[in-house]
Predict the structure.
Amino acid sequence: MAQPGFKLSLKGRALRLLSQREHSRAELVRKLSPHEEVPGELAQALDELQAKGFIDETRVLESVLNHRAPKLGNGRIKQELQAKGLAPAAVAQAMLDLKDSEFARAQGVWQKKFGAPAADANERAKHYRFLLTRGFSAEVVRKVVQQSGTPEEDFDS
């Protein structure tokens, strides 16, 4: 914690944020721009940190994928990566890499939360909503709930 009367530099603030988790340059700009007193000071500090390897977009991307992919669907992960201001090409490549594993990840999330087939239409709807809010595609959610033991003809009810 900073001492009373002691003001942390922009670089110090950035390092503090980076010590907690990986941040993209866009996130740091958003968080630190209110503290910038001299125009250009923030860009210079971030340039120095990026040159030294403290800011690395690839590490941010990998961190999000490693921490969030087991629990979330591709929709939510894509949204988080875009919110971090990562390059669209990098986000698109990450989504391609995750596409094949979405069904297995959705099954794992469903199994951990429910573990048993839905007993009725209301419970089945609950299963659907749960997986959809975690960013899994409607097609993947349908397959997971369907394979959980619920008869296919019940889906029309």
About this structure: The chain is about 65% helix and 0% strand.
